[in-house]
Amino acid sequence: MAEATTDVRLATGPFDPAHELEAFTAAHPEAGGIVSFLGQVRAGGGVEALELQHYEPLTLPAMKALAARVRERWELDGLLLIHRSGVMEPGAPIVLVAAAARHRRDAFAAADFAMDHLKSESWFWKREKAGGEWRWIEPRDQDFEDIARWG
Amino acid sequence: MAEATTDVRLATGPFDPAHELEAFTAAHPEAGGIVSFLGQVRAGGGVEALELQHYEPLTLPAMKALAARVRERWELDGLLLIHRSGVMEPGAPIVLVAAAARHRRDAFAAADFAMDHLKSESWFWKREKAGGEWRWIEPRDQDFEDIARWG
Amino acid sequence: MGTGMDLPSSERESASRITLVFLGRLEDLAGGGSRAVAAASSIDAVIDALEPQLARALREPRVKLAVNGILLQDNDAPVLRHGDEIAFLPPVSGG
Amino acid sequence: MGTGMDLPSSERESASRITLVFLGRLEDLAGGGSRAVAAASSIDAVIDALEPQLARALREPRVKLAVNGILLQDNDAPVLRHGDEIAFLPPVSGG
């Protein structure tokens, strides 16, 4: 069996989710199932651009710590976690999480958990541009509810 | 907003999941999140080949009916469901489910539900070749437990 | 459907063929994925005409039947016609 | 760290600078993402030396602090040194 791999990246420029997922899949032929989540900047709704700000000394270490928690909690063959920072246009990929596992349930739960915690705990500050004006986005209650699901 | 799409296919030959997912993603720029599940023939474990048999008059209509149930149950921008039949080598893709939604929770739940029901309800019969011998695979109890989760 | 109705009764009988389709492990038991057989008045009669071991396997409670792509309910006893296709469906395999 | 210890006290004082980093909406209030300021003996003293409106925002209970990439706990009161970086972290944005 191939060694379990964890690949965590903070991308400051664009990345290609199809290419990343293809490479991840090719690296895990022993996994029966691969669950992925791709978050992208929503087109429509009047948002012209999105900016995610990170703080280097905290953001990447926290992503790596989250990945380690996911690896401990579920039996995975591989885990991929890529998050953008910087200014993005509508349709641009923001985040890609992929979990490869022997069992489907593990892959779904791991990807779901990783997303819930990435969204609410990670050190990203977000602002949106609409009508030519930038506006900072405040925390949402939904994130705290998502987290509470995991006990 | 683009019209919600449902794409259900029974593939009797190989398909390229990276290409399919890329096209699906490009068709749904208005979706914030896309969850996908890719099932592939596991490498290792001594399985030399897998065959999935379908029965045309039942298999595709049942997949379409499942897709319609998923669309009714969650608010999605798009749903993709591709299932192989025929003989496949280790590493070959078997099934790809992708759900595009405005809200992450809907996309995860829809893909998860679709997989649980595809696995246990759809009209595929499976046999594996190991040590040069073909052997039919019987139903697993796990599938009934997976289904029970959805109430 | 029903195109044989104009023929005399004896000719209708001799022309009356149906197709049996065996899925999954039933294919191995039957020695092939499908078989053309003479129609009988009922599914029971069709099964009775088969090899006893195969007939037993087809009657297992977990084996479902479809006639022309329509799944039968427990008490359905359809009248068979020339050209009908009966599929024998063992439980589908787990994931 | 500690390389200034060999200098006379007056030179240490004049060379002692720290960097403040303002994340999210704090960047707009501060008029920039970071600022070099003269070190003071404590974080409280550093904040006191800033514009009152900015100082108030930095003291909001939901704003967390990190010194050289290490998050401070509620009662931490670190002694500041030349070259330290203090980051002010408002609540992160929801998804």
From TrEMBL, chains A, B:
Catalytic activity as recorded in UniProt: 2 [molybdopterin-synthase sulfur-carrier protein]-C-terminal-Gly-aminoethanethioate + cyclic pyranopterin phosphate + H2O = molybdopterin + 2 [molybdopterin-synthase sulfur-carrier protein]-C-terminal Gly-Gly + 2 H(+)
Domain of life: Bacteria
Pfam families membership: MoaE (PF02391)
InterPro entries: MoaE_sf (IPR036563), Mopterin_biosynth_MoaE (IPR003448)
Pathway listed: Cofactor biosynthesis; molybdopterin biosynthesis
Matching PANTHER family: MOLYBDOPTERIN SYNTHASE RELATED
Family as reported in the entry's similarity comment: Belongs to the MoaE family.
Physiological role: Converts molybdopterin precursor Z into molybdopterin. This requires the incorporation of two sulfur atoms into precursor Z to generate a dithiolene group. The sulfur is provided by MoaD.
Name of the featured protein: Molybdopterin synthase catalytic subunit
Organism the protein comes from: Novosphingobium mangrovi (ex Huang et al. 2023)
UniProtKB/TrEMBL annotation, chains C, D:
Coiled-coil positions: none
Protein's name according to its UniProt entry: MoaD/ThiS family protein
